[in-house]
Fold each of these.
Amino acid sequence: MPTKKLILSQQEIARRVVELGHEISALYQDRPLVLVGVLNGAFIFMADLARSLTINVEIDFVRVASYGMSSTSSGSISLSKDVGLDLTDKDVLLVEDIVDTGRTLAWLKEFFHDKGATSVRLCTLINKKERRQAAVEPDFSGFDVDEGFLVGYGLDCAEQYRNLAAIYHLEKPLV
Ligand code: IMP
Ligand code: MG
């Protein structure tokens, strides 16, 4: 079994998610906002973030098929699940677990602009800056971390560890 080192406790995450909810609510106020979660990693963050908002939102999900079971990007991105909502003239906030190279985010931003969204912003729980390749930055970010492979609170390694309540650094990823 790989060893895990605690990086962010359940309490730290909960506090920061509430702050993000306030920041996002203050920015959008009465505008029609759609939260679009990126499956599978964002499912827990989305559930907590959505409940920390004080504004009305619609919620949908996409699934991106780029990483498969590996811990590094394969480079090519496609959607294996699209949104069902009409996004024309709506503000879209993408909800991601973690931004690493930024390629997924860059691709998704263009994809949602092409769907006619008024604006496309990104909220990520974790901003991992060291390996950034695409020229994109999250508009809302929970925590900055250095390079390293993280699991828990939705983040996986080969579909394991998503259900951990805190976030850990995985010393030897199973890949
Ligand atoms: P990017 O296109 O390299 O920014 O890929 C971001 C995606 O890679 C995230 O949505 C995660 O699914 C996955 N990913 C990147 N780093 C990690 C990590 O440390 N732990 C778990 N998944 C990760
Ligand atoms: Mg993932």
Amino acid sequence: MKQITLLLFLFLLSSCAMEGEAPLTTFTPTDHNATEETRTLFTSLDAIRHQHVLFGHQDDLAYGYSWINEPGRSDVLETAGSYPAVYGWELGDLEYGNQENLDGVNFENMKQWIKEGYSRGGVITIGWHMNNPVTGGDAWDTEGDAVPTILPGGENHEMFKGWLDTFADFLNDLTVTAENGESHPVPILFRPFHEHNGSWFWWGQDLTTTEDFVALWRFTVEYLRDEKGLNNLLYSYSPDVFDSKEAYLERYPGDDYVDIFGYDDYHSIRSADTQETFINRLEMLVEMAEERNKIPAMTETGYEAIPDPDWWTETLLAGINANETTRRIAYVLVWRNANHEHDRPDHYYAPYSGHPSEGNFREFREHDLILFEDDLPNLYSLEMER
Ligand code: BMA
């Protein structure tokens, strides 16, 4: 059933193109020089979200509940029977020149896993729990009024540019060679300064002004795009939960600086009690994104340790599939499965083999709306599919 739907999707795309009509979407990413694969991904995500929602998992290939760095493994694969369609990765500590990120993931391995997931047709998204530039503490250290110091003219501005340079160097290693021998960089959904409407990170709501947050965002985009020449990024604006469109947009840096309308939600996704709030947030998100030709997505979610064995279909899917608007998000990504022995004991958001929600997770995976990696059409080259 899923396959038929996908063929229809591809047929629709190709028939529009063949008859010389306007493509399904006429909008382009904020980066007008975005690479062909990046532009195609943007268009594909916009097209596919009218029929399906991609499932994603953070750090999926790096470690799981009971394993660390074992080639080919994935808790999602071992429970659902497919890798996730979206892979989330984390750069915290890259800015220090460290070999591993704050969760112990080796950056060289991460580059391989990113290329591996992309080569199988997956979508890659990257976030960054960047350390506090004033105190040297972590992202959760809210001391020091940090944001103004890294803006142009601030005492840590050059250091901050150096941190963005480390990001550019990392990205420049993410080049793959296609069958025709041509190389191109892996398209990345980049999600900086996330959950900024909360006050737990140094870039958060009570720690900086709207003006400075917007200036920081715009500087970051302009530096990466115009100075570093990175043309494989789609920018994801990703606040935490919000209760009105005005609240969501309070620190919106503008249509020229954002491609993905994300939102992180660990609050209204736990039970039937908050389902109405969850649905309402999804509706607002989709409406705001569509008004601006952006792509809505649930950029982070999950129920830690999944204490409800039916959570996947009864709460998460029930919310996303509530109506024609809610189901138009492009993807939903659940957070990482920390290794229970070496990292954090009950900090996991996808099931592992033997977890009580495993059967329900398979049901979720088999639902027509939801796509895992082995359900995906080619999101990067519509030409090839024609
Ligand atoms: C948080 C937690 C932390 C982790 C951080 C970055 O939400 O999972 O344990 O260090 O994300 O991945």
